[in-house]
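ingest -> fold -> write
write: protein_1
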Amino acid sequence: MSPLIPIVIISGATMGAVYAVSELVARKKNSGGLQNRIDGIGGGKTPTQQPVGQTSSEFSWGMQTAESNTTAGNVTARPDLLPTITKFVSANQIGKNLRVEMHRAGMRLRPAEFIGVCIGGVIVMGIMGQILTGMLWMTMLMAFVGLVIPVVLLRFKQNMRTSKFSGQLPDCLTLVASSLRTGYSFMNAVELVINEMPPPISEEFAWARGEAQLGVPMETALQRMVERIKSYDLDLVVTSVSIQLQVGGNLAEILDTISETIRERIRIRGEIASLTAEGKLSGIIVFCLPLALCLILNVVAPGYFDPLLNHPLGRWIIGGTLVLMCLGGLIIYKMINMDV
């Protein structure tokens, strides 16, 4: 084993300990700072009721959730675990983009906390790779896996939340259309969706309702909801509602038509998913089996891959194999994923 690797590990652990101590000091220094300033302005008393239309902490840092916009209660902000990183990312576009990504996935994490999870994954997986194999390239590969896992989990949760939202959308449109037929206004119909529908669709409409109560035009609030969700079905609905609010028309009939279209698309997607399930499973097995086999053989017989790793031709063979595996996985992905 290279003597440089233990030095790097010890240095990383030392820097991590120093950073953890600095974060604790910063948290202790900043704790109660906002409350003290509010007490100084308001004579030591702070309101306990949530103002109407307050925005959500799922999207920003330290505020209450969008779902709690429907009720009033005590506001308790969750303490910031990484104030230094929060201060850094909040000053640039990285923090704003990560905040949107966290909200889109429905994850109760601040951007700084997600960055901390990624850094921790790199360190932990790198140390595991070094302990299990003692090889520098395997350590680097495991560290890269530790970085990729949180990102993949984030994308997975985003896709799951978007799929759940799309599945709830037809029932939401039916509820809105029925409310409009009984004489409700569009805002009253939105209130009914917030109170009757489960998350995540109730959370998103609560967010849009809160923005409208703060003075944002309803068309703009709905368009921002499309930007957060990234759903083609929702984009179609918002476009129809925006046109109807501007030029008039029978919105209930339009929503019923869109609801039927979305239900049919969901049915077709389900049929396609059932027909392509075998291909998806085959692609996953074919892609993951060589990697898992290489890892097992390297643990059981550490010198098994020495001829490939020590010879220039062997390195080219390994590189070509990885490229072909990625290319095959991409081809299978394109074959089994159809845009409906």
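write: protein_2
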Amino acid sequence: MPELGTRKRKYVFLCLRIAVVTGGILWAVFWISREQRWANLTAVFRKMNMWIFALTLGIFVLCQIVMGLRWWLLLRTQSIFIRLWAAVKLYFLGWFYNNFMPSSVGGDLVRAWYITKHTHKRFEAVLSVFADRAIGLLSTLSIAAFFYSFFFVGRGEKIRLTGNRDSLAFLTRHKSVIFYVFLTMTVVFCVLLINRRTRAKISKIWFSVSLRGRLVFEKLKNTIVVYCRRPLTILMVFALTVGSQIMVITGFWILGENMGIEAGIRYYYVFFTLMWVVAALPVSIGGVVVMEGGLAYLFVHYAGVEPEAALALALCQRVVWMVASVPGAWVHLIGAHLPKDFFVDSGK
């Protein structure tokens, strides 16, 4: 029965994510079909040079290979010795799952599962995947913070709202509602604790989680200690990540300039990195709709870009992501994600 309940929750969560994507696409189609937006969007795409698009795609694919190298270095830090090309193939496989597979299993979980087939150090291998993701998110936020501080705050300038809506003003106006919602949730939780049966179930769950948590914590501590003993490797991994992300964003800036988008590269470095972090949240499938809508909103309301041009840029990024994911499908079809020998590093 517990397994059935867990499976049911997964299906409900999947249906909600599909509903977000479907609703967003329908709204976008409705928005484009009004006035002259479809003609304006087509005109923006006609300005695009396909060779510039191919250059942007090539930069992105090259940087994904560098990301595979980053993960390979993290694996070697934990004495997990697999070939560099094997790590790159698994990285592309995970990227394919992130962008194409409509399920609750993300690319990181796929990588974590298949890397355990390459080594007996399963916990360390799985942790390397999440360390890889954590370093990626940290570097993304670092780029956003640096360029915002240097290009905007450092020069006495701020990103100003050019539209009629302000999210911060909305939160300020409805701060009492937010407070009462939080208060209600707190009261409900306290009521659950007062009930004897509920309290017993919570205690049982807490005991089980704490018991397993102590075991996991010991392994986690030992693994983190190994990473801390290799500061130069971690610094190299971070530098590779920052360099790759800057190259990718610069490629999209070149594409945007080619499409006639008159926005400085500083907006690209801040907006793209912020939306990469937001799109990592499991709200939709592969960040679809959330990424495109958020990116277009930022360029329109903060950089003064025309809505059709901002949407075209966001759609180009999605196309680049999906085309770059195709090698991952080929890796899966030919079985290149599995090792020839089960323990590749057993002799080392």
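write: annotation protein_2
The CA atoms of residues 148 and 270 lie 6 Å apart.
Residues 196-228 form the longest helix (33 residues).
pipeline exit 0
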